[in-house]
Amino acid sequence: MGVVEDSRPGGLDLTPWGKYSLLYNLVYPLLFHQLDAAAVMGELWDRYLTPAQRRVICRGLGLGPAEARCEAMFLAGAHDIGKASRFQMCERGAWAQVSDALQADAGPWRLIRHERASMHAAIELLAEFGYRLAGNASPAVRAAQILGSHHGRYLQCDVRGAASSRRVRLDLGGPLWQDLRRRYLAQIRYLAGATTPPARISAEAAVLLSGLVMVADRLVSQPHVWMRRAMAQTDGALVHWISTRHLQSADAEEGWAAEVVTASGLERIDLPHVPFTQAHPHTGGPNRLQASVLSQLDPVVKEQGAGILVVTDSTGTGKTITGQEAARIFNRHCGTSGVAVLQPTTAIADAAYENLVDYVSAHRPKRAPVSLVHSHSWNSAAYHDKRLLEAAGQLTLDEYFDEHHDRAGRPDHLVTVPDPFLRGWDRALLAQFTVATIDQALMAVLAVRYSALRLLALSGRTVILDEIHVTTPYMRRLTARLVHWLAALDTPVVLLSATLEPAAARELVHAYLTGAGLRTGRLDNLDVDVPYPGWLFAAARDGAMTRIDPGQAAAHATATRRTLTLCHQPVRAVRLGATERSAAADERLHRIAEEIRLIPADGGCAIIVCATVADAQDTYRHLTRLPWPRPREDLVLLHARFPGHHREAITRRVRTELGPAGRRPERLAVVTTSLLDMSLDLDCDLMISDLASLARLLQRAGRLWRFERLWREETGTGRSRRPAWILERGPRLTVLEPVADGHTHLPPWWGQGEPAFELHAAAHLLKASPTLTLDLPTQLPRLLETAATRIPGTLAALHAAYQGDLRAHEHLGHEQAVPPPARTGSLADLYRRPTTAGTAPTREGARPRRLLACYRRPDGSLHLDPAGTHPLPDTPRLPAPAIRSVLDRTVNVPEDWLAEAPANLPESWRQHALLADLTLLIHDATAVGPIRLGNHLLHLDPVLGLIHDAAPR
Is residue 371 pLDDT above 50, yes or no? Predict the structure, then answer.
């Protein structure tokens, strides 16, 4: 029989199952599931993919747009062909409904993953359809690997071994099964219109197609989607295929496949053009740098297409807005749509999320989901309790290796709230507008499951990497590989930085242009120096460089000019200790108290940045002795080792009261760590900092008098809002250098923070000018260059060790990253060092563990609070509020602190993805004190947060 006859009722055996519900004894035919995936793929091609993504796929397949669309539909439909085998036996209830002839031809049971079976079975059949079968990069092999990757992993395809015709017939059933697989694929190919085999499949096209197949499969595998189809089954492949385009109810507005994509929230939208001041309402219009981007970059991108834009400017001058406007220009001319903003930390990502929501909302779209993606994004208001329940979903045997699927349709929420499908753990990046930590993006170039889904999500829009200067050499090597892949996927990239080193800018620009196809030898002669302040655009097409007009750069530097003073203060670093004691005049704690002693009486806002959490706790305890009018309101402690809900509340308060639109308090002293270093729009009157690298000190200095110009313009009188004593001394950052015997001496409890050389180098520079007046932004590049190139002889050995560590970390990053597209043979090369999202090495060093403090009452019961008002939840099916109450109270700690912690989790928690890796720190509710875990003493204090000390040996 031919494909036409097979498409008719009774033409094909439809008894093999594709989806099965044990609860409802509901079976959905495999071929129908495959046709559903093909139909949804067609909608994704039309409504999710951007022109840039379609261009990459067409180029990579050697096909025109119509032919490439049909090929994508065929691959989506073929993804589960491996289920047409003895795999059917894994569900007894569904197997009982398979035809007697196929049951007899199956042979004995043998476990095989169905995605691997799909890859093996497809090789011979694709070759029969005209796909060239040769080496690892041949179309037949790569197409088969795309089918095998639909559960997130690229598998090695052994054409002469497990994927050979003999082994396929041995492993996947007899001749009836082989004939059925052939006829199923021929039917899908016929209905999808995929009559032209691709001449090639590039690595870039393969990755995008793999991601699309994953999305299509997940959409049609949602129980509420396939179960409705199963209860209204059609007879025959053609009738079922036609039904995917028909309205499913009287009130439906579009066909079934289109409705599925609409409900997912994946459809792209175009933000309407609005005036600059509407998109950015807290500005009076673009500054000089932003205006230069609007006037210069727009015509260049229109002519030359996508590329990489590097923007450098001092803190607080509107780089975020510059990035958003650049993204608008790129999206208009490059066939991209949407934006992904990548931030270095979760705290910064939370703030950036609110900013992006405001930006998108200012355009007043009907619907434009904005997602937040990081390890604690469950704590965001963007995600509802249902997402927490999904992590505890129970799977059928068929779905054992799958992610849990959503069970509800799209709710009626704010236009920027992600739809249910986009609230999945690894799907949120697919939203058109996304804020994420850079770690989430770096997993796209690590051997992490669903890395292809991440590359699909990041491509097709403008990717903004903010605060790029804070990446370590290891992370920068991974970032370079990421921008290389993004260039190969025709994706514009924007880098934003206040203190980006020239070498780092050169590395990332070269990586992008190499990914775009420029030869390395040609790049050696390119001048990639970035003006400061200013910007540089490198076109992907030919590497042509465009820079900000020098006149505009000079005018912007003049308009944003400000001076501040760095004051060097040598101190003796001593821990406060458990007992209350007085600090000596040369101690660090005494100097901090002296710097802010006028605030309690005369007002003012200060930020004290400490090197460690322990130093911050000591500093807070010491400063409580000052005569604060309202101690709880006037003095604030903020660091990373507070329970999540406590830390988020303090962070929000600080961002509000010291932000541009908040009601500024008369007095406030914030004792913190590096938590407030970057991308937070804060202003303080004075700042004190422990010794840090010069780049970090300059970053922190950006908070000093940040809104001074804005305030003077708003009042119209040129008057400042600062106390008189603050105005008299001016903006000043006091840097405390720990010394012993007249030399820099880093306290042993500082541990593995910033490299010792960078701290010593900063101390050497500050000693040379104990009171250093800086003229920003013009003086900043020269200052950074001096620190990087003029190495004193006394630091030569430390510098040599530092350079060795840099090279080692760069090499480690290179080894961990997946190969670039041009060096990818088998797609399995992209999955050679498999890891998980929870253990992915996006940063060097051990990953933190999560700790939950709880309290045991006299009756033996455990509670989340000392008063015993919140029992530790432990039920077979944990409700969402209970899950959130637990997660809100967790604290991240170094892994070695918990190495000897007992396994004491409730049984119900061990089955929940978000709770299974927690460690309980169980206090005695009647006498709360330090708990010994191996060599560590830990205690959660309600005011100071988690206190850590070394246990006596």
Answer: yes
Q: What is the pLDDT of residue 612?
A: 96
Under DSSP, the state recorded for 827 is: G
Distance, CA of 78 to CA of 903 (rounded, Å): 45
Contacts for 315 with CB less than 8 Å, ≥ 6 apart: 498, 699, 701, 702, 703, 706
Query: What contacts 742, CB < 8 A, 6 or more positions away?
Result: none
Distance from C-alpha of 850 to C-alpha of 835, rounded to nearest angstrom: 20
Q: What radius of gyration do the chain's Cα atoms show?
A: 30
pLDDT at 766 over 90: yes
Strand, coil or helix: what is 679? Answer: coil
Report, as an integer, the average pLDDT of 22-39. 94
In the chain, what percentage of residues exceed pLDDT 90? 70
Asked if residue 201 lies in contact with residue 142, where contact means CB atoms within 8 angstroms, the answer is yes
Helix (H) or strand (E) holding 563: strand 562-571
Q: What are the φ and ψ backbone dihedral angles of 549, each rounded to 5 degrees? A: -60, 130
Contacts of 111 (CB under 8 A, 6+ apart): 90
Say if CB 830 and CB 210 are below 8 A apart.
Answer: no
- 242 neighbors 8 (Cβ within 8 angstroms): no
Strand partners, 568: 735
As to burial, measured by CB atoms within 10 angstroms (0-12 exposed, 13-18 middle, 19+ buried), residue 338 is buried
What is the spatial distance between Cα 431 and Cα 901, in angstroms, rounded to a whole number?
A: 39
Q: Long-range contact list for 719-726, CB < 8 A, 24+ apart?
A: 721/664, 722/604, 722/685, 723/602, 723/603, 723/604, 723/685, 724/602, 725/598, 725/602, 725/604, 726/604, 726/685, 726/686
Quote the pTM value: 0.91
